[in-house]
Specification:
The complex is a heterodimer. Chain A is of the alpha/beta class. Chain A contains 8 helices and 8 strands. In chain A, β3, α3 (102-108) and β4 (114-118) form a beta-alpha-beta unit. In chain A, α1 (43-58) packs parallel to α4. The N and C termini of chain A lie far apart (57 Å). By secondary structure, chain B is an alpha+beta fold. Chain B is built from 2 helices and 6 strands; from the N terminus they run αβαβββββ. The longest helix of chain B is centred in the N-terminal third of the chain and has 18 residues, at 3-20. Classes of the chains: A alpha/beta, B alpha+beta. β1 of chain A pairs antiparallel with β6 of chain B, so a sheet runs across the interface.
Chain lengths: 247, 115
Amino acid sequence: MCDSCGCDHEHDVTIALPGRADVAEVHDHHHGRVLQVEEDVLGRNNALASHNRAWFAAHQILALNLVSSPGSGKTTLLEQTIRRLNGAVPVAVIEGDQQTLLDAERINATGAPAVQVNTGAGCHLDADMVHRALHALTPPDHSLLFIENVGNLVCPALFDLGEKAKVVIISVTEGEDKPLKYPAMFAAASLCLINKIDLLPYLDFSVARCMEYARRANPDLTFFTLSARTGDGMDEWLTWLNDAVRH
Amino acid sequence: MHEMSLALSIVELVTGRAEAAGARTINRIELEVGTLAGVLVDSLRFCFEAAVRNTMAAGAELAIREIAARGSCPACGVEAPMEGLISACPVCGQYLVLGKGRELRVVSMTVDEEG
């Protein structure tokens, strides 16, 4: 096996096209000068995220990165959160979706400013997209900024946006074993909201088991159980937000 | 499929550094990837081939060194390999805390000065 690229070929056979000497040298690994790089692949994203974080700190903005699978109720949760805050704290929203302005329009209907980032084929927001969105949105000082990430429990775990905390939302219709299947996101989050608890009577979903599974990936997770639709449990979440925005 | 963004980040990183060093072409890139870095190596290789097109790294070999994930037990202190982010301590059954295995780093590259 080739030590350098891990391919299964034995390189005792030379392959050449007439007039193309370079093809025969594809596996000549030893020519050239070696440059030490020692740099994180996510280094640029992390640097931009630090820039965003410093800006949030300077303007005393609490930025939360909301992550979940598609359909967990993130946008409904945001609508209800904004309505319940009722202007007590200014709220702005960055909406991330592959396509459409639907979510930003829903947020705008609550009276809060929102900007939509369409990632196209992209499966996550990155720090640069958030940076550009901030220039379009210009959230006020002492405000609360929600960044609703693309619905995806995998990729957004890797990309720091500069947020204070990742908030992972799981709805009870998804099954209590989600944290076991997608542990990276639960490991990266600080808060876990278990949504749609009004549906619990119709499902075999154990809230206690779901929490236990999530704690296996992250023993420090803080949980809230709520239903954005009925308002059950929303007061505790609002209290947490009010406290967090003051610190 | 965040591997495409990662591949593009790798190309941006190495071409920037190679240009700064006065190099003309990049022949080989050595990457360190932890087994729990959240990266599919096959997918990353596939995306890398597309990402290097029309850059000074076109045709460069991507040499990937995998770093096996290891964690330590918060209860009994034992160190053990981790198959996944949720791995139980082989001694006491408590869930291990990840030590290494999330690396995603360009270690070095081989370049040519003449185009």
